[in-house]
Amino acid sequence: MAYMSQEGYDKLVAELQRLEAIERPKASAAIAEARDKGDLSENSEYEAAKEAQAHLEDKINRMKMTIAEAKIVDTSRLSADAVQILSKVELTNIKTNQKMVYTIVSEQEANLREGKISIKTPIAQGLLNKKVGDTAEIQIPRGTITLRIDKISID
Predict the structure, then answer these.
(1) From CA 37, how far away is CA 43, in angstroms rounded?
(2) What is the enclosing helix (H) or strand (E) of 87?
(3) Cα–Cα distance measured from residue 67 to residue 64, given in angstroms and rounded to the nearest whole number
(4) Highest mean pLDDT among 16-20, 41-45, 79-83
């Protein structure tokens, strides 16, 4: 089961509709075009188009499964007392004094450029259930970092 925001769910549904309505017909057209070029046994364009279609169908099927298993989190029922999914957390790296802000989201919604990190990342896992003022020592690939939680909010 994937917990996600209504916004993340809506984006996923829109992307699925785009793939089915636009990308799937494009993939079929590419196969038909390649097939028209003659001998299929030596037609690398045909093989590439078939492979691209298989990848697209796989992606569509995975998205359908995610949507079917999605559980939309009602943000009005969330508390800013402790870090949880959909919490926006303002942090300070104790060693470097660097400030950072992350929103903890489902894997499907993660987007580092938007400051959204997956609940499955080491940082998110290390922050879960912590409160304002708490510090968390988190093991990351480069070593251990110590983060202090300065503020928790729900957007």
Answers:
(1) 8
(2) strand 87-93
(3) 5
(4) 16-20
